[in-house]
From TrEMBL:
This is Pseudouridylate synthase PUS7L. It comes from the Eukaryota. It comes from Culter alburnus (Topmouth culter). The lineage of its organism: Eukaryota, Metazoa, Chordata, Craniata, Vertebrata. The keyword S-adenosyl-L-methionine does not apply. SUPFAM superfamilies: Pseudouridine synthase.
Length: 643
């Protein structure tokens, strides 16, 4: 984290120099669950045993309200890499089959283009994995099972829908149908022809009427069709043997993952390959640092406790350990945590300026007391933007908001310093534009890049092909880049707010409202009705304090401050060409409503121990709410660049 990017601090102590993350052991992170328990605590299983196996939706919602972060802070990367699931040879044969079928359908004889066998899969669960992965990568294919053999062929339903909508829309629609995620909605592009909309309504109702319902709506004089999953019938039905067998397959196993020097998604990809499931079968509350030892709760779908424990030795070879393994009734949700506990060591301590080591103890004490009592500016940390990357995520997000699809793809494939395979593949694509050759170079574990390259190979690298490329990635990944841009704007807004309006709540500021104290839990996401605008009388009487001030994350459903900061937001967005932005990227099915984030955050349960003999070091422990960054807290303490 460079100090010049986050230059406004809340306290005026002098701070000191130091380095963090000299080794993973110097940066230990442990999730705190919604019951206030550390997820590596022996009490975790006991606490979960007290939870009803199937809590009511109302109770689940109440718990989420207490722990939900201000936005999806985390990247939720699903991966359906057929190279891993089918093997390179079969995956290449499938690519050849689909390319020939799509590019030159008239040149294929009926036998050649009718079906392709993917081989036999005696295990029912593995067959399900293959079906899901093939359908995700090739929505225009139909997968069928003959005993234990899986065959693929062209899907006539996809072909029919493609004649009514674009192929890109058809692909996204069939992914939506296959996912069957409760509460989700699919929206077709605006269509001015009532007759054409009727044809789409009829197709969807005829083929998927038992699963979904359709409705037309008009927004700004443009009419679109929305498709919504029907609610499951509340009427009890007679259970069949097949129902019982399916229920046995659909089980959830919770565990605590300890990982060292691994990214969360990298760890998931490896565990998924070992267990024979998809990375999307894992759910978690948040992403954890790579250069650290981290403990986090996870849930895996369709894997029993015994199956998970059977793979412990393979996980350990990759720097992962699992504990607290137990059956549960549902997956985890993003943000379903109270916060994180940090156990950190800062090394190479030395005072700023001309101070000697004898004064270090007083400098550390002053810094720790200030942050303990006053907190820190709640900036988004560098990992939010892709720390260390040549092109950071917020730049990609800006290009997407401006619908500059080709530019966004080039940014996505901008290589970092290094000569490893993934950077060679990225350089090759930027130099040649050859997605097929770049795909061959890209390592199998780089799931996002491989999905993008596969789509670009199939549809080309023009505007439409780039749209298809982005649509090949999961929705959570696409929207992450937009959130990253909005986070960058939030950070800059926080600096401007403190520099121009000072360190007290002033007229026009937004504050939390709605509780007896006028405050809300710092981890609760706020909607517009809960936001109050400070009046001149309230400023005069110091009704609100700075730690009650919130700043909006840009979006289409937020209120902006009614003072200098509100105008700053408008000017800042206009500077990036977003003056009239509606924060929707229709071709990519993305919408950013925005939310609110507290200007300040405060560490809890903070303790520290200074060692001055031999090599000076400082050990610190503290707790932070979800979506707050330890590196930002340390920046306030040290008033120094962190390396």
């Amino acid at each position: 984290m460079e100090r010049d990017t986050l230059s406004c601090c809340i306290s005026d102590h002098e701070g000191f120099h130091g380095t963090i993350k000299n080794s993973p052991q110097d940066f230990v992170v442990v999730e705190i669950d919604t019951h206030g328990q550390l997820v590596n605590s022996p009490n975790v299983q006991e606490e979960h045993a007290k939870i009803p196996s199937q809590p009511s939706q109302a109770k689940r919602d109440d718990k989420l309200k207490q722990s939900k972060p201000d936005d999806t802070d985390i990247l939720n990367q699903d991966c359906f890499d057929l190279n891993l699931i089918l093997g390179p040879a079969m995956n290449e044969e499938l690519e050849h089959f689909t390319n020939k079928m799509r590019a030159n359908p008239n040149e294929m004889c009926e036998q050649e283009k009718s079906e392709l066998s993917l081989g036999t899969y005696p295990d029912k669960h593995l067959r399900a994995v293959v079906h899901r992965a093939v359908r995700y990568n090739f929505p225009f294919l139909q997968t069928v099972t003959n005993q234990s053999e899986i065959r693929v062929r062209e899907d006539p339903d996809f072909k029919e829908l493609s004649s009514l909508a674009s192929e890109g829309e058809a692909e996204e629609f069939f992914r939506f149908i296959d996912a069957k995620v409760p509460g989700t909605v699919f929206t077709f592009l605006p269509d001015d022809s009532k007759e054409h909309r009727t044809s789409v309504h009829h197709f969807v109702s005829r083929r998927f009427g038992k699963l979904v319902e359709t409705k037309s709506f008009t927004d700004q004089q443009k009419t679109s069709i929305t498709v919504r999953l029907r609610e499951r019938s509340k009427q009890p039905k007679k259970r069949t043997i097949a129902d019982c067998q399916e229920e046995e397959v659909t089980l959830y196993t919770a565990f605590t993952l300890r990982k060292e020097n691994l990214e969360t998604l990298e760890a998931i990809s490896y565990m998924a390959a070992v267990l024979g499931v998809l990375p999307s079968d894992f759910t978690y509350a948040g992403i954890k640092d790579k250069r650290a030892i981290t403990y986090q709760a996870m849930v895996v779908k369709k894997i029993s406790s015994e199956q998970l424990l059977d793979k412990v030795s393979e996980f350990e070879r990759r720097g992962m350990q699992i504990s607290h393994v137990r059956p549960v009734s549902e997956p985890l949700k993003l943000g379903r945590l109270q916060g994180n506990h940090f156990d950190l060591v800062i090394r190479d301590l030395k005072p700023h300026g001309k101070h000697g080591l004898t004064e270090l103890q007083q400098l550390v004490k002053e810094a720790m007391e200030n942050v303990k009592n006053r907190g820190f500016v709640n900036y988004y940390g560098p990992q939010r933007f892709g720390s260390g990357s040549c092109v950071q995520a917020d730049q990609i997000g800006l290009a997407l908001l401006k619908e500059e699809m080709e530019a966004s793809v080039k940014l996505f494939f901008t290589p970092e310093d290094g000569d490893d395979l993934q950077n060679k593949a990225k350089r090759h694509f930027l130099l040649t534009g050859n997605a097929k050759e770049s795909l061959a170079l890209m390592p199998a574990y780089k799931a996002r890049e491989r999905l993008m390259l596969r789509a670009l190979h199939r549809y080309g690298s023009g505007q439409e092909g780039c749209i298809r490329g982005w649509l090949s990635l999961p929705h959570s990944m696409r929207v992450f880049y937009l959130h990253s841009y909005c986070s960058r704007v939030w950070n800059e807004a926080a600096i401007y707010r403190l520099q121009k309006l000072g360190f007290k709540a002033v007229q026009g500021d937004l504050v939390w409202a709605g509780s007896e104290t006028g405050l809300k839990s710092s981890t609760e996401e706020l909607n517009a009705p809960q936001v109050h605008v400070v009046t001149s009388e309230e400023e005069k009487n110091d009704v609100f304090s700075l730690d009650q001030v919130i700043l909006p994350m840009p979006g289409n459903s937020v209120k902006y401050p009614e003072n200098l900061l509100g105008q700053w937001y408008r000017d800042r967005l206009a500077q990036d060409g977003l003056g009239s932005c509606r924060f929707r990227v229709t071709p990519l099915k993305l919408n950013v409503p925005g939310c609110y984030r507290p200007l300040l955050a405060k560490p809890q349960n903070i303790t520290y121990s200074l060692r001055t003999v031999e090599e000076p070091s400082l050990s610190i422990t503290f707790d932070l709410d979800a979506s707050c960054y330890a590196t930002v807290c340390l920046g306030e303490i040290m008033k120094s660049n962190l390396s």
